[in-house]
Amino acid sequence: MPQLILVNPWIHDFAAFDLWSKPLGLLYLASHLRQAGFKIHLIDCLGIRDAGTADQDSGRRPIRRLYGTGKFPRHKTSRPLPLKHIPRAYSRYGISLQSYVEEIRKVREPAALLVTCMMTYWYPGVQEVIRIFKEIHPGVPVILGGTYARLCPDHALRNAGADHVVLNDGMEAVRNVIEILLERGIEAEPRSEISEVRPYPAFDLLPGMEYIPILTSTGCPYRCAYCASRFLYPRTERRDPLDVLQEILFWNREYGISDFAFYDDALLTGADSHAAVFLEEIARRNLDIRFHTPNALHVREIRPEIAGLLFRAGFRTIRLGLETSDILLHHRMGDKVSEGEFERAVENLRSAGFRKKDIGAYILMGMPGQTVESVRETVLFSDRVGAMPYLAEYSPMPHTALWEEAIAASEYDLASEPLYHNNTLLPCWDELRKAEVPELRELVRRIRR
Ligand code: B12
Ligand code: SF4
Question: What are the structural domains, with CATH classification, of the chain?
Answer without folding.
Answer: 3-183 (3.40.50.280), 214-448 (3.20.20.70)
